[in-house]
Amino acid sequence: MLVLLLFSSSLVYANGLIVGIAIADDDHVYVWHKDGTVTSGTSGHFEKYTHASPYSLPPGKTVNNIVAISIAGSDNHVYAWYDDGTVSSGTSTDLDKYRPLYNYSLPPGKTIKSIVGIGIAKDNRVYAWYDDITVSIGTTDDLDKHRAPEFYSLPIGKIAANIVEIDIAKSNDHVYAWYSDGTASSGTSSHLDSDRSSFGYVPAQVLYQWWGPKPLRRSRPAVTIARSLSTEIESTNADRYPGLSKERTVPNARKPQPRPDEDPADTGAGQSPAFVTSFFPTFGSIDPMIAAGNQYLIVSDTGSLAFFDKEGKPLTEKNGIPTSLSVYDFFANFLAKTDDDGNVNENNINLYLGFPKPCDSPGYPQTRSGKRFCINQFYDTRVTFDPTSKRFFIISQVRHELWEGYYGAVLSDVSDTSKCDQEVLARKNVCNFLTNKYDDLVRRFVVFAVSKTEDPRDGFHQYIITESNVRDWPWMATNGNAFVTAHRGESESGPVATVFSISSLKSGEQHPPYFRYYSKDVNNILAVMPPTHHQNAAGLVYLLGKNKGKRLDIFAFQQTIDPWTAPPLLKTFVDFSDKPNVTGAVYRQNKLYLIDPYLAEEKGEAQRYSVRVVRVPVERLGGELIKASTDSAKGYLDYFFGRNAPSDSPNDRISYERPSVAVNKNGDMLFGYGRYPFVSEKTLHPEARYTLWYGNEAKQRRSQLLRVGEAANSRTVSVQIDYTTAVVDPADDTSFWVALPYVNSSGQYKTVVGKISP
Questions:
Q1: I need a surface site. Which of 295, 305, 688, 736 has the fewest CB within 10 A?
Q2: pTM of the model
Q3: 87-125: buried (b, 16+ CB within 10 Å) or exposed (e) per residue?
Q4: In this predicted model, what pLDDT tens digit does every residue of 440-495 receive, in sequence order?
């Protein structure tokens, strides 16, 4: 008989998230979780086939009483053994459906606490493994009826206390054992590592952690680096992160195609209103973002978070919760090796990378951080507030330093540098991405959080999706009970959008319901983006197609009472001569608003962008039909502005960088952006500006300065900022908040936050 084991560290597995694992005759692996749900999948992916559903226990029993669970090969009956010496028989969701509790006996000298795993073989013999490294063979009620305990061996460095559960496949009598470090190997019942080297398993599609006041809070690890990635980028320039410069180019690859009426100067019917208030977070970067709640604000950059009141004052600490911290510290529980009690942290994402060795194994090359191949960088952070659930949401991407090959590795530790891109190697002394033998070990994951209440200091329920992807730019949107995650980056595999139940997230469910859409569902498009939705809780949720053509594909799904099943998509499209950008779009009052950094002209590396706003009416015709209109009488708009501001000279041509848009209940549009000189008669440093377009006026107002630039910046002219943010204040649904970048006197991009009231 072969035995397949998943190995663990030397730490004792206690109070684990899993109470039983069993294999059915079709080789499906069923996993019973401590939250009272059961999933099914494979030995390496516990939720591959079915999502979590509740299971019931015999009267008087709780999940804490379960010792082990297995499935008989003859009839697929599920057997569960309990810590009071009883066993029951039933189904995966009803553990005593077929037979109520009856007693079982152990070999002499054994106690119930000695059991580390029980499995039923194809011939219905029951194998029981004990913590003294012995195994017996018997029946469900007599564990040594057929054979008294005999010794079995563990892999080198493993102990029996590491075992989570053991079971036997009915198809071939291979025995599977799961250990608390998320690894696996195979052997025989008496030699547990004689068949197959270790491999990893994933316990669920998402892992859960609590960040906030005790008693829910788990300890955060002691870290020596708690930094904003953006701060490091600014302090060292793009040379230290060459891949970032490559990935963060402006998405509009098209050549400039301006016509005189398409690129008017920054003129309008009067001036945009002055800002009501402004403030400056201590951090800042090329990708600022703000979430405005009814009482509080959250401001972020790619690697930092801070909580403020509506006057821009930093919130005071509450229950010991910091109000300004790095994203690394915020999500660090997903990297902690142990929990408060010193036990293995089963929600450590580094347990589930599927590496052949532990991520910090000395068998891997040394990296700049010293953490070798372990996940250690949080970046591309975004924040938003959902006015329906009154919760803040935070999303980020997490990776290790293999994201660009050997960058950060000590080349003397690398045995195979022959595959390095020689040009890159000569110029940067590093190997390029996707050029070495460790390519398959590149990992990136999406992590997100939802606040427990409207006050971010009350804590956050945090989740990480255990499916690795190689895309950046995670994006999110909320509407009704739908929390949508997607990526701007394209991929031929994996989902294009994942939709979670907000009601489950805000209550901190360990297995939140979700469904997914894939490329085949969206006309084979490789990426879709969800727009910001406003006051549409009972209506459709929209997704916008990002493809390489000139057609804008628009998809929508209806709110559903089944949070596990993807509703059919409604589809329509609009043809453009030049398709607008879909990142940062807004859906409001049956119209889609798209904001575009339109490339107006270029000279060498220098580029000048204008602001392009596109408004597309979308009608629901009933049933499964939606229709997009290009009729201006219904509100269709495709409009450009930019080039210079009222304070500029008439012949100045200034680049309007990365515009954002927000729309209030009156149909007023607020555009925020950064500005950078292209041709200017006077000195102009990167500054923060905004423009208001009233809903009852025919064109935008003239722009208003939020923060003047104080110096030049060393970033290349062709790569200035990643994005800006404009949002509506949910407290009145008329005022706007913006988070915009400007360059300070030290030449670094910083963030300025402002409130504008029309």
A1: 295
A2: 0.86
A3: bbbbbbeebbbeeebeebebbeebeeebbbbbbbbbeeb
A4: 788 899 999 999 999 999 999 999 999 888 788 899 999 999 999 998 877 767 89
